[in-house]
């Protein structure tokens, strides 16, 4: 009897000294748990900025102080991205995600204690803790997709992982304006804030319990040939056998040496990435796109109220939240669409450029709609802008993973996020001053200029798809050996 396809693949893998590849059904559970964790974290990011006029009056602070509750997420990420990426890469997904969720829970409950007009400092400390916690979620989608999902699913899985973050941002736009009213009585605002804080603390607490019970570090077998080749390379560099264990006779004291070697390899990886010209171009291009989205989101309340004052538009605060929600929900669709396009056609650079051109057009349209004073048009153009800017995130992640293969996805994504956070800080600080002094028009011109600059950088990125090339090569080798195994082996 001729061997079955799975048996032939196993025989081919054995002939090459490798494990057969296989995807497991529980990969979707891991993805869902991570996405909910990321959602719970991201919901905190914009919660003060989207009700900036209420928060400034309640806590007695300036607009810039409220802007810093958003900026702190970016500022915390930049200096700590390298150690966070090290944890994700060297310790694994489970320790990293558990650490991030635990820190998020602590910060969330601390914010519960800040529901009083004289406790802005406590609110800011809690917000900072949650901002630090996001380092252990932003860099995970690409890594989780590569570790758990097959070659034909990895871009879609990455997009779903990013979806959790985007859904959290959407909730951050929607829930605070809905729960916290612009009351003249500060005691009523205190009651509203307590409810908001309890909701935003209960969710990550429940998620932490689920992570402890069900979230796994990695599957027992690799899900793709590219991942199998990476594992084999890592085992060889660590001096381990095919089963991943150290050779017999290795002293347990050698673990310190192995850890030191791993640290040196990690630093070498960063050096290699930062000397890759195409990756550097992507770094700044990604930063301009994502940084612009961060800045528009942070200043959205101020931009909307500049054009739609409350005495003429009583629902302007709620509208600001719903406009932000529209941006993010359309961005979710953009993310999923981008992931499907990449998985289907593998046109990474082409997709990047098309989406970037649309983002520039979307920003131009949004700026025009704000100036027109037509709120319906603002909703429409904000949705289109969100589809392109937020939808670009998983495309950037996957393009970065292609350009830097075989190096860790978490490190490549971590540096991309650091670029987005750094540029986001600069844009929020600069635009935050400009919007107060010169108004919306000059501010929006600045955002358009940032996106145009990012588009120009994208044009010069080389279409060097290393991971895709490795996957095709591995598939070819296995199909050839599998065919030979199917012909030469019989089952009795």
Structural notes for this entry:
The chain crosses the membrane at residues 28-54, 66-88, 95-116, 122-142, 154-175, 195-215, 279-300, 320-341, 353-370, 376-399, 411-430, 442-461. It is a multi-pass membrane protein. With 492 residues, this protein is mostly helical. The protein has 2 domains: 20-226, Growth Hormone, Chain: A (Up-down Bundle); 272-478, MFS general substrate transporter like domains (Growth Hormone, Chain: A). The protein is 78% helix and 0% strand. The longest helix is centred in the last third of the chain and has 30 residues, at 316-345.
Q: Top keywords for this entry?
A:
492 residues, mainly alpha, Growth Hormone, Chain: A, 2 domains, globular, disordered N terminus
Question: How does the helix and strand content classify structurally?
Answer: mainly alpha
Q: Estimate the helix proportion, in percent.
A: over 70%
Task: Give the biggest beta sheet.
Answer: none
User: Per CATH, what is the topology of the largest domain?
Assistant: Growth Hormone, Chain: A
Tell me the name of the CATH class of the largest domain.
Mainly Alpha
The overall number of domains is 2
Uncertain segments are: 1-16, 241-252
What global shape is seen? globular
Radius of gyration: 24 Å
Distance between the termini: 7 Å
Number of strands: 0
Can you write the helix and strand succession as a string? HHHHHHHHHHHHHHHHHHHHH
CATH superfamily of the largest domain: MFS general substrate transporter like domains
What share of the residues does DSSP label as strand, in percent? under 5%
Oligomer: single chain
């Amino acid at each position: 009897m001729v061997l079955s396809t799975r048996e032939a693949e196993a025989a081919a893998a054995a002939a090459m000294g490798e494990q057969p590849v296989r995807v497991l059904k529980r990969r979707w559970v891991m993805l869902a748990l991570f996405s909910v964790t990321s959602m719970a974290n991201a919901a905190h990011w914009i919660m003060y900025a989207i009700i900036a006029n209420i928060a400034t009056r309640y806590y007695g602070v300036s607009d810039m102080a409220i802007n810093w509750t958003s900026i702190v997420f970016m500022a915390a990420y930049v200096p700590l991205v390298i150690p966070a990426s090290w944890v994700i890469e060297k310790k694994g997904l489970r320790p990293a995600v558990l650490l991030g969720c635990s820190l998020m829970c602590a910060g969330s409950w601390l914010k519960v204690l800040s529901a009083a007009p004289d406790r802005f400092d406590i609110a800011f400390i809690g917000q900072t803790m949650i901002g630090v916690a996001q380092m252990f979620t932003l860099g995970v989608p690409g890594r989780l997709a590569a570790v758990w999902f097959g070659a034909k699913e990895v871009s879609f899985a990455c997009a779903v992982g990013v979806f959790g973050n985007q859904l959290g941002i959407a909730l951050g736009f929607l829930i605070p304006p809905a729960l916290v009213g612009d009351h003249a009585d500060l005691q009523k605002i205190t009651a509203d804030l307590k409810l908001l804080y309890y909701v935003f603390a209960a969710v990550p607490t429940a998620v932490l319990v689920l992570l402890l019970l069900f979230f796994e570090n990695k599957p027992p077998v690799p899900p793709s040939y590219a991942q199998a080749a990476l594992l084999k390379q890592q085992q060889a560099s660590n001096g381990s056998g095919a089963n991943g264990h150290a050779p017999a006779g290795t002293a347990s004291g050698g673990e310190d040496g192995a850890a030191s070697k791993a640290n040196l390899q990690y630093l070498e990886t960063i050096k290699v990435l930062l000397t890759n010209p195409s990756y550097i171009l992507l770094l700044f291009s990604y930063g301009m796109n994502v940084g612009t989205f961060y800045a528009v989101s942070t200043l959205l309340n101020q931009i909307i109220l500049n054009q739609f004052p409350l005495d003429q538009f009583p629902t302007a605060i709620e509208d600001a939240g719903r406009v932000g929600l529209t941006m993010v929900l359309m961005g979710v669709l953009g993310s999923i669409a981008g992931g499907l396009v990449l998985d289907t056609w593998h046109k990474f650079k082409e997709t990047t450029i098309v989406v970037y051109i649309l983002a520039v057009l979307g920003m131009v349209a949004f700026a025009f709609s704000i100036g027109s004073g037509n709120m319906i048009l603002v909703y429409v153009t904000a949705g289109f802008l969100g589809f392109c800017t937020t939808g670009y995130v998983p495309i950037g992640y996957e393009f970065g993973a292609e350009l830097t293969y075989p190096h860790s996805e978490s490190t490549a994504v971590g540096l991309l996020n650091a670029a987005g956070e750094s540029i986001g800080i600069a844009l929020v600080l600069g635009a935050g001053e400009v919007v107060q002094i010169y108004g919306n028009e000059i501010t929006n011109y600045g955002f358009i200029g940032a996106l145009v600059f990012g588009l120009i950088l994208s044009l010069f990125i080389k279409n060097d798809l290393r991971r895709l090339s490795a996957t095709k090569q591995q598939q070819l080798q296995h199909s050839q050996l599998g065919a030979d195994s199917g012909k030469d082996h019989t089952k009795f």
